[in-house]
From TrEMBL, chain A:
Gene Ontology biological-process entries: anterograde synaptic vesicle transport; intracellular protein transport; postsynaptic neurotransmitter receptor internalization
Record has Zinc-finger as a keyword: no
Entry's transmembrane regions: none
Key words of the record: Cytoplasmic vesicle, Golgi apparatus, Membrane, Protein transport, Transport
Function: Part of the AP-3 complex, an adaptor-related complex which is not clathrin-associated. The complex is associated with the Golgi region as well as more peripheral structures. It facilitates the budding of vesicles from the Golgi membrane and may be directly involved in trafficking to lysosomes. In concert with the BLOC-1 complex, AP-3 is required to target cargos into vesicles assembled at cell bodies for delivery into neurites and nerve terminals.
Protein name (Swiss-Prot/TrEMBL): AP-3 complex subunit mu-1
GO terms for MF: small GTPase binding
Gene3D superfamilies, per the entry: 3.30.450.60, Mu homology domain, subdomain B
Protein family (similarity comment): Belongs to the adaptor complexes medium subunit family.
Record's bilayer topology term: Peripheral membrane protein
Cellular compartment(s): Golgi apparatus; Cytoplasmic vesicle membrane
Amino acid sequence: MIHSLFLINCSGDIFLEKHWKSVVSQSVCDYFFEAQEKAADVENVPPVISTPHHYLISIYRDKLFFVSVIQTEVPPLFVIEFLHRVADTFQDYFGECSEAAIKDNVVIVYELLEEMLDNGFPLATESNILKELIKPPTILRSVVNSITGSSNVGDTLPTGQLSNIPWRRAGVKYTNNEAYFDVVEEIDAIIDKSGSTVFAEIQGVIDACIKLSGMPDLSLSFMNPRLLDDVSFHPCIRFKRWESERVLSFIPPDGNFRLISYRVSSQNLVAIPVYVKHNISFKENSSCGRFDITIGPKQNMGKTIEGITVTVHMPKVVLNMNLTPTQGSYTFDPVTKVLTWDVGKITPQKLPSLKGLVNLQSGAPKPEENPSLNIQFKIQQLAISGLKVNRLDMYGEKYKPFKGVKYVTKAGKFQVRT
Amino acid sequence: MSSNSFAYNEQSAGGEATELGQEATSTISPSGAFGLFSSDLKKNEDLKQMLESNKDSAKLDAMKRIVGMIAKGKNASELFPAVVKNVASKNIEIKKLVYVYLVRYAEEQQDLALLSISTFQRALKDPNQLIRASALRVLSSIRVPIIVPIMMLAIKEASADLSPYVRKNAAHAIQKLYSLDPDQKEMLIEVIEKLLKDKSTLVAGSVVMAFEEVCPDRIDLIHKNYRKLCNLLVDVEEWGQVVIIHMLTRYARTQFVSPWKEGDGLEDNEKNFYESDDEQKEKADKRKAYAMDPDHRLLIRNTKPLLQSRNAAVVMAVAQLYWHIAPKSETGVISKSLVRLLRSNREVQYIVLQNIATMSIQRKGMFEPYLKSFYVRSTDPTMIKTLKLEILTNLANEANISTLLREFQTYVKSQDKQFAAATIQTIGRCATNISEVTDTCLNGLVCLLSNRDEIVVAESVVVIKKLLQMQPAQHGEIIKHMAKLLDSITVPVARASILWLIGENCERVPKIAPDVLRKTAKSFTSEDDLVKLQILNLGAKLYLTNSKQTKLLTQYILNLGKYDQNYDIRDRTRFIRQLIVPNEKSGALSKYAKKIFLAQKPAPLLESPFKDRDHFQLGTLSHTLNTKATGYLELSNWPEVAPDPSVRNVEVIELAKEWTPAGKAKKENSVKKFYSESEEEEDSSDSSSDSESGSGSESGELGESGEERDSSEDSSEDSSSGQDSESESESGVQSKRAAKKNSKPKGKSGCEDGEKENEKSKTSESSNAESSSIEESSSDSESESDSESEAESRRVAKVSTPVFVPMKSHVLLHRMSGKGLAASYYFPRQPCIFGDKMVSVQITLNNTTDQKIENIHIGEKKLPMGMQMHVFNPVDSLEPEGSITVSMGIDFCDSTQTASFQLCTKDDCFSVSIQPPVGELLLPVAMSEKDFKKEQGMLTGMNETSAIIVAAPQNFTPSVILQKVVNVANVGAVPSGQDNIQRFAAKTVHSGSLMLVTVELKEGSTAQLIINTEKTVIGSVLLRELKPVLSQG
């Protein structure tokens, strides 16, 4: 399936290559560079490229291109999903998935790639299994290894690989047994000029951090499970149980993982926590325009809205911006034409605003359309959909774990058209 | 460039330095700058030394640096000898890195690579499964043709390994070996066949992958494992799921009939809603006539939970499965999950949107509720935007078009001009598809003509041109407006479009057109080629309609064109001149010049670029690229008539250690009926679906048999109340349904049982059977029986396969004489598990008393000379009203002598005896017609017995004869080239002597029955038995 993998950085250097079958020459990447050139923007490089003898399927992650070489028919999502899993694994091992991190750990990277694919077909992708086979680098371990001569490579088959719960390692031991759940909801919305909602929906995930000894069997129930319209599960969740009782029952992997992601249907009205008043205009036949935006809270359920950032991609004719914020700070990058206003918290008494003048390239026609505003915010201790965890029960182990649930609401793809 | 590569070198050297820094103990510590200043050669010298040192840490350092070189794509092949020496290192990390190196360079250094082979061979026997597995991995990854036999051996051994992990690796190795040496195919298929039977979820995905790569056409290997795969699917790892689902999709399309009813291709939901009651009833009737194969249902049901997978590839795989094989009314469930994937990263979005685009062309209804999820964000990459736009266009209808047009208005203003242009095209398409809004759209587009951006204007012009062309109505105003634009617009396509439009409508704008020509004549030389051609066209058209005003202008333009640099334009000029300017040489054509130039032109069709993608399987690379990718496997069309469903039946023997009596009654009956008498009865009068549901639940591990039973019961009701399809076939009047059922080839299981014998003849036969089943759908009972007999022969491809006839149960012990214990026996026609010379016998014990009967066993045996008997295990106790079936084997020594023995309980002993009908002493064998004739030729003279039968002609149809012969004797049909001769072959159980039966139809409702066999006694007995049966009405 997957023949070879090339890692390419932003400046077009191939800094790592790995082949699972016969060696494919680096020159195959020329087709990729060609497509990249054509696309102008990295985001627009087509993920699937056809070349005379091969097919290239690529992903773009953290300023790196993962380009895989395929020779025969294969579901493209299979490869894409796998490449993202590789990137996730690097992230997991090295804390970041960057060129420097990969180069520093090239041997581990190679060992990982060797374990993850055999003859181009995924062999082990569960992080719990991989970590038993190849230990992640830590400073302590490298010191210990150098003294004792032991290695980073496990010499027995990880127990998970053979069990029917491959995601969990055997023999997990903690002194403090803890299970934390983060309910994170993101609001995706498009708000039109007049402030009415064109489209809004809530996308949620429950991320778990489980540090429990032994083989705990957990079940998590909600006060209002009907809210969840469409759910995707970590393989550990017993689907039947959810179908019949709407309870999440599972033996968790060890460590951090995403338990479920869900969508709250757009049929339910989504409460939009902020509103924006905007007045952006460009004068005809003059080289300046006005820019004025104000953000206010709306239906925030008594919680503070914080971490507000407004990002605006200004039209190309904008040369510079001269603005004054009543709160926070702003930057304008004249090259990418991106205006970023870091607002911070909203205090209802004094609404934050950003006002000022826009300098346009003289002589150029005024922009057709006002730019849309992308807004980021965060509300702690609130799941905007109203989802509430009811209880967490543990079976199979004797000890009493420490349990915790945290709710956060964030803006997802939140866009205000002006 | 040079400075660039220098920087890169520095970087890499830096990388090494840090790496070395981590290894604090490196004995020989090369300085960080070493790599920068020394030549590669010297550096390698140094590595060689490190590899030859006796310290593991030095070796490890060296290997790490070498792996670093490999990773960067630098050549490290000259270190091969030094590295290979370390292949047997005790240090597992060194070993692994050496493996990495070997796999990379072995192909280039084949001779040296051979040095390492013995190490792997030893490691293959290691008690540690991880080491066995990785040895196999490396061994099979070394692409050295010389070791193919060694690899083959290793794979064979590993495929029988106790560890499923090793077996998984064996499955991977199959593909590697196949790509190295395709000649090994046959042997590899055997291994695949073996591994397909594996019950481990770990192996399933990998072996199916191997199957797909090596022998995707050997769909027959899947039959027996189909239900197992369906049931295991949820527990297989996610990557395996994708592969298995894709394979099963293909499988389903060859094995089941279409669940799509005719005429409900598009949006059947909607139509149903508005339909009158009558129509609905009609539809319901039709629907009833179709009953889904329970196996088909099993697949659809078992994949549904996977829509909830976190892995986008799995979700997409299930979605395409539903799209391609589920009934249209059930496909709706996938849309929600697909829309969910749109939250994922851009690459996933791209693929998913492409697939949704294809789906939304055919079935708008599916995605309409999610219309808003496809609204475009200004931050989306352009490729995502255009795909979303495509889907929005497909989803547009009368109800939502106004909302959509408002949304499009926003898009048109987008800063991304490429996207804005695409939006304009979209508006054009909406305008043509939905007539209500055509005028609105046209007005909107005309407004865009005054847009400041040239690309937008140009695109609008092109789209308006197309729209106007479709609407022959008067649009003089718009054309005038566009004529004015000609002064300002510079985009060639747009200018060309305007000129063409004016030329086409030159009679409607008689004042403007000549003026436009005048202006363009002035600028002719500086125009783009595209525009020049249109100026020529415009001139020609005006010359024909308004020659008074434009004659000179046109000639001027033609003169310019004559000397143009582009030969296309010169050609066109010459052509037009000859055609329109009258001179003495001008031919007959010039009379028609006006008709030629101003003919009514058909309007262009604005179509989705995704229109023609639906012939590719969704979710595949080929679909994404819209060209056939290497190795793409076509999804076949639904068969007209489903192939035999019983091939998927799995003998329960593996689980229960007990032979199940195979199919009774109806020919399509199969396994199961093993648990209780009552069920048996039901089966024998019912159709195949019942027995399938039974075996489905037997093999199933998910305990969903209840539901399954429901659906199968439905289907049996449907099938003309499941009654005697036999009698129907006799009367020759058959419902299509019955025909279908009847003709299903039975137990093809032979093919799956792992015998290679007859491999070739089987495939040829199966293709025969296929062709005849197609034939059959058009013609009636005769051709049907053809396929039947051929199918029959496939069934006996291997001796073990049962023949499906009504079961004849014989009383062994009557309850009156047995003090309440009743026993009956029958012959399941399975090869005996206790010995290959034995006939297997199933004994059903019934307790008719109101007390427990304990310790039922066989006591003293009184057997004739040479006869042997394998008794059943004693039954500890039998509850009142209870019944149990046990199996035993008796070697009758090919005689019809009676086996007498005592059936004992705790308190009593009863003498009983079994006398076998001669037909049960046989086992069917597969044989080609040619072989049959050859064998028959050797068994003539005293080995041949024959008789003449007289019977009514309707009793001599091939299917009736087959039915009757098979009822009497356990023989297998031989495919026959002649209509009037039917042949059957079998061998005796004990001695394996052939038993050849021929029925040759003669004139005057007579037939000749010939039996050729060495065992003349049995032969003549069989003849005696067959004769009355065949002559009966």
